[in-house]
Specification:
Layout (H helix, E strand, L loop, with lengths): L6 H6 L8 H16 L10 H6 L4 H11 L16 H59 L1
Helix pairs in contact: 2-4
Amino acid sequence: MGGKNTEKEKKEYGKMEEYTKYEVARILGARALQLSMNAPRLLRMEKNELEKIKYDPLKIAELEFKAGVLPITVRRPMPKKIEVEKKEEIEIEEEAKEEKEGEAAEEVAEGAAEEAEERETVVEEPETEEVKETESISEEEVE
């Protein structure tokens, strides 16, 4: 099996048009492994045919593949399709989410600024009260 499949190879492999050369190699390798572990053959073969191919599991797997009796399939997962409308909806949702995150960040920043201002005023208030208390005490002590 070269790079391009010739007409002879296509006829030879029956279902070759359905499988890539890599899939064929995988199928034949899997079946040859099964045969080498004493799995039952799916084709009836004469003893002289088996001796001719020297009981080679790969050759037996090839013959079974050509005959189309292998119960091995290939899964080809397809990518998920997203319709154009769904893409637009997703983009709109993402933009809305980004705006909400931006607003939330601004609110957090504003809240932090307000808290900082409150702390400053809280810090100033006790100082002024203490100062007033000390002034009132000193005036009372003087009298």
